[in-house]
Amino acid sequence: MKDAITQTGPAYFDATDCNIADLAAICNQTLQPAAVPFATEVQKNIPLYDAAGIAPVLADGTARRNIMAEWAHVLRASSGVIVIRQAYDDTTVIDRATEIFNTIIATEKATITAADHFAAAGSNDRVWNSLQKLCEADPACFAAYHGNIFIDAASEAWLGPNYQMTAQVNLVHPGGAAQQAHRDYHLGFMTADVSARYPAHVHDLSPVLTLQGGIAHVDMDIEAGPTKLLPFSQSYRPGYAAWRLPDFRAYFEENFVQLPLRKGDLIFFNPALFHAGGQNRTADVERFVNLLQVSSAMGRSLETVNRGKMCRALFPVLSGAHGLTPTQTAAAIAACAEGYSFPTNLDSDPPVGGLAPITQADLMRQGLSEGWTAAQFDAALSALEDRQKA
């Protein structure tokens, strides 16, 4: 049965709502330079900003708001991506950070398999939580590296103040395969059936909760495989239901654009933009990017709740003769247990059999279906809590 239709379209999105012609109509636009007056130029529908030129603008309160408003408009309603050239006037701090990250990669390879969500295993190396690891390894380097006014302004432009920074290094070796086209966190990290359970208005909301960014640690010509981007595609509302479909992925491969990046450049894009890491066709360039995943401060609950204690108290009740129907049991679990996989420690709590790790709610449902004792559930929950610790 077809889902209910609201005044603004479907109440839920699924594959039947996805029409490649609709995406093509959205993407068949041209960003005019007059629409981005602070940009130095527009290439392939992507506005490019010169860091030295906009630094004085960001120092002025009124002008800062004007340029942030321009960036927010591009990210939300225009081409969906911006590039800031030479955002580090001294790239020695990037070189120092690269040294630290390479040391971390070498150390972690012995014990951790840092898989990529959307790329073939072995084609790259990851450093999960590169933010904390850099800060602990060299706080002075961290201060110079992340004390960047352009990263700060772009993050605030999209998310407002008090944003939450996270980062993950992606190092793609020569010959490394391209990623498949996808959207990103939040809904992009869910399987198709899970994302389809979220109402259409949440599909609209998800992209404004995070900002995707990247710091180029090396010069990257097109042959090195900088991110493939489909400008304007973030405006296609059913896109979280569409990005896995073969015709949409084919359209992406036929129409994506790439821009070369230089060490110290920044790129930011709407997480709903169809994108993918490109293939590294070089023989000697290690494509090294520190990916920024910046989150809204508002993605938090009102109270601090110890859900582990609640789960341990509730499990014996639900595993006994409680008189609840299955739907009532599901509602009780939803009110009690953490049902979302993030935030977590992706080194010790990686996704297994999907895009996201197991949750407290998953564990409780598993324990009930398999007839665990309270002691068995407690042990499994303790193991999960240990894996999630930073």
Number of strands: 12
List SSEs in N-to-C order.
EEHEEHHEHEHHHEHHEEHHEEEHHHH
Low-confidence stretches: none
Query: How far from one another are the termini?
Result: 45 Å
Mean pLDDT: 93
CATH architecture tag of the largest domain = Sandwich
Overall shape: it is globular
For the record, the count of structural domains works out to 2
Percent strand equals: 5-15%
So what's the CATH class of the largest domain? Mainly Beta
Count of DSSP-assigned helices:
15
What would the CATH topology of the largest domain be?
Jelly Rolls
Largest sheet: 8 strands, mixed
Strand order, biggest sheet? 3-4-5-10-8-12-7-6
Describe the protein's architecture and organization.
Helices cover 38% and strands 14% of the residues. The model has no long low-confidence stretch (mean pLDDT 93). The relative contact order is 0.14. The chain has 2 domains: 12-295, Jelly Rolls (Sandwich), CATH 2.60.120.620; 307-388, no CATH class. The protein has helices at 20-27, 51-58, 61-77, 92-108, 130-137, 139-146, 149-159, 192-195, 200-205, 239-242, 246-255, 307-318, 326-336, 360-369, 374-388; strands at 5-6, 9-10, 41-43, 46-50, 81-85, 124-127, 164-172, 210-216, 228-229, 266-269, 275-276, 287-295. With 390 residues, it is of the alpha+beta class. The chain contains 15 helices and 12 strands. α4 (92-108) crosses α5 and α4 (92-108) crosses α6.
Outline the secondary-structure elements.
Layout (H helix, E strand, L loop, with lengths): L4 E2 L2 E2 L9 H8 L13 E3 L2 E5 H8 L2 H17 L3 E5 L6 H17 L15 E4 L2 H8 L1 H8 L2 H11 L4 E9 L19 H4 L4 H6 L4 E7 L11 E2 L9 H4 L3 H10 L10 E4 L5 E2 L10 E9 L11 H12 L7 H11 L23 H10 L4 H15 L2
Parallel strand pairs: 4-5
Antiparallel strand pairs: 1-2, 3-4, 5-10, 6-7, 7-12, 8-10, 8-12, 9-11
